[in-house]
Specification:
With 377 residues, this protein is α+β, with helices and mostly antiparallel strands. The chain contains ten helices and nine strands. It is elongated, with a radius of gyration of 24 Å.
Length: 377
Amino acid sequence: MLKYMLKILTLVLTISLLFVNTFLTKSVNYGATLIIIIVALIASFIIFGYRRVDRRDFKYKLLLVLGLTFLLQSMLYLIATKSGYSVNYSSIFKHYIPGKIVLYVFLITIVRELIRYLVVNTNTNKKIEYYILQALLIIMCVIVDLSIATKVYTFSSFTLIYEFISMFLIPSVAKNILLSYLSKIGGYVLTFAYVLIMDLYIYVIPVKPDLNMLLNAVVLLVFPYLVYNYISKLSIRRATVKKKEKKKNNKIINILSTIVFIILVCLVSREFKYSMIGIGSGSMTGTVNKGDAIIYRKYEQDEDIKDKVIVFRRNNVMIVHRVIKSYIMDGDVVYQTKGDANESQDNWLVEKADIIGIVEYRIPFIAWPSVLLGELF
């Protein structure tokens, strides 16, 4: 029991020091972060001990991690051929930050993964004790992610809090859960491989895909599940009892989940003919309800959109309403719109340049998590 309490104390103390360094200091101190986790690594080595992991199928696991991460990054860079690229402000080739900072980030990442390896492979007598240790480890790793993040998050408004939770916190938790699993079944080499391609590439490659934040959030949230899904198949192959039908079903599920993921990324990216957005208001209730998602296709300039439900932008907000009339104004066509559930028409006119797309399909309910988060914050 005493050893277990020492393990808890080690993680809690590390979390506390990282929290103070990340949230309470006026500037990010990479050196302090590195010192804190080096001390934590030494303490972890003494208290948690070092155990070798099962190395069977390691080569295949490593190739799978490298292949899936490389495939995803290649797909994102391919999508960016349409959306464009942005310069990595942290690229060592462009000298946007000192090389010392890049070294700090790499060292911090290496030490963090070594701590993860020690914690996830420690011996505990009870499952609940193990789960508590792993939860504390995830919290520690998320704070480390935040301390070396390329963007500084502030919490001065509900919008910024929502952005932090949806764009950073949830994807970071998903990633770190996967990394703990990889460290458990293959060791720190697997986690190094994943982090190098998914996180640290920005310090090596001078440009990155200029994609919208929603797409990045979806990718970083869903992709860890796909990696886990494929790698866990290797463990199933070693099971004593194997049923052909079960193996066939698992293969079908993996293929379908991959297809759904690719389709979802393409729809959310808004870089292709068809895109998807969630509905956060009741102005179109009966046609499209609050909490639904809609799939729309890109608007062609010469299309007749009378009586069609369109997606357009007004004051940087995307609106989904129906076109009820058209007018000629200064030689150009403008449109009057109205929500099907609204009593009156909109008090503005929509120009062609503001039209994004035409609604084609409705998917009920799937946007509720996003809507609820938006209303909460």
